[in-house]
Sequence to fold (657 residues):
Amino acid sequence: MRSLKARITVLVGISLLLLLAAQTVGLRIIPGALVEDYVVTRLEHDADTLYARLVDGTEPVELFSRTVGLIYETPLSGHYFRIMTGDTVLRSRSLWDEDLALDAVPPGEQQVSRAPGPAGQSLLIHSRGYWLRGEPVTIAVAEDVSAMETTVARLERRLLLIMLLGVGAVLLIQYLVVQRALRPVDAAVQACRKLEAGGAAPMELRAPREIEPLVEAVNRLIRHHGLRLERTRRALGNVSHALKTPLAVMTQISDELAEQGDRAAADALRPQLQAIRNTVERELHRARLAGRGHPGAGFDARAELEPLVDALRRLYGERVSIVLDIRGEPAAVDGEDMLELFGNLLDNACKWARSRVQITLRQGPDIEAVIEDDGPGVEEALLARLGQPGMRLDEGTPGHGLGLAIVHDVVEQYRGEIRYGRSEALGGFRVEVRIPG
Amino acid sequence: MRVLIVEDDAELGPRLRQRLAREGLAVDLAANGIDGRHLGETEPYDLIILDLGLPDLSGLDILAAWRKAGLTVPVLILTARDGWRERVEGLRAGADDYLGKPFHTEELLARVQALLRRAAPVRDTVLHLGPWWLDEQRQCLVGEAGEETPLTATEYRLLRYFLRHPGEVLSKTQLSEHLYEYESERDSNVLEVYVRRLREKLGRDLIETRRGQGYVLRKD
Fold:
């Protein structure tokens, strides 16, 4: 059993049921014993009284019943006695014409027994042996306890029922208590998930002392990972900067050569420079991608794409209107990667659009986005070649032709899907991209 | 039109300056962030080309400082860090365009022209003046029949500024601030000479003199 809660619940439940069983056994024994004790004491007294009368001898035996108690006179009253001396047997009137089959008890001894009585009664019998003028006498006194037994049984049933209800209530309470007691664990698990999804660890989180180190370790690990990713990216940025400025100078020189009329030199330089630039750009971009499933990743399209669209509006502001429709919760993918993906796709759309660009995005846990424009679109035959390095459709529009290649790198890293087609709504280019979270 | 380039690279900066000057722009070059920020704040530029990777000050901070101070001059960011994160940050800090290094001269020029057009009161791609239009490539006036009227570099600068701001009273100081580099001698009397020459080529009435205020190019 791997669930802590189930385990605690079952263990507590078992101990409660054991307690219930012990109580039931006690309930069966104790009231019965108490009743018997009480009745036997009374019977002893009656036996002693009878013996005292016998010893006294002033009263005729027939009249004993009257002095011992009227109850022994009333037929089938439930109170009986039987005195045996040798062959003589003296029975209380209450026995009427029934008899109790009893053995003689040696003097000085006594026994308590049970026997069925007349009229379906249940008798508790106390027999005791005495010496009476040198002869052994056995005095047996009996009482019907069936009414008492019925009462005790009813009491037992009631108590048992109350106890069952009590156990049920306690089980329920302990279940709730366990749930409540382990809530910090749930909170800690949630916090770890949040950390994994790139959120910040909530400051008010007080994980139980047993679990705190775990949460801290996760937090540390993720922070460490994040720092390393950041360092790598910064280093790559520096490399990029260090390589691209000289490249820019060389590009300027080649352009100047062309302007001065030295076409041959410029034409020799340009493809080389272009090749270096493409490699630097593509490989550095690829190296910067965090990729799928790295902890600490978090991308909220709302928080990231709105600034991006803002920025694009600054670039294309008057010409293109951009409509952004985002639904769902943030997804656990890297923000930087997604910004590269959507930046390139949206930039393309804005470049080509006549006046409208539309983004429809569903996020969490996966990201599904459709980006459409009302530009000329792409011919069916060319769709399959989109995103291949060096494939450029926008010869006239400024850009490197690397945008879609980078988009493909991102999609590949996340094992996502990308599909191109024609927009039904706007009539231009349509990109459908799916990134599993 | 006056342009400021803030670029720390000792090779790239002067080359850009030279190339833009050939386009008839008055170009100042700042090789570090502190000078660049100061020039941007004090001189009335029509465009600023800003490198983000400066050694002393972050280009983004400079841009933010300018925008905070209320400067509305168009800014073209030039940078080797062209991830989308940086682009978004740059554009949101107030940049108007973004160009990743390395770039081709034509691309830079196209963007510079586009930004200058966008910022001026007249945004037409081709500037017209009476029967002429201004050929910005060859820096001359072209008539209806295709005949060309040559312009000197300063005449061209002056005329283009007038054409981008027709109907506005332009003082001599204002004109010289937008036509000459920071280091150059500014003699407002020289301007009078150039205005006279333009009048000789275009006719007397096109540029009016407002005494004590400056010049106005008549709106058609």
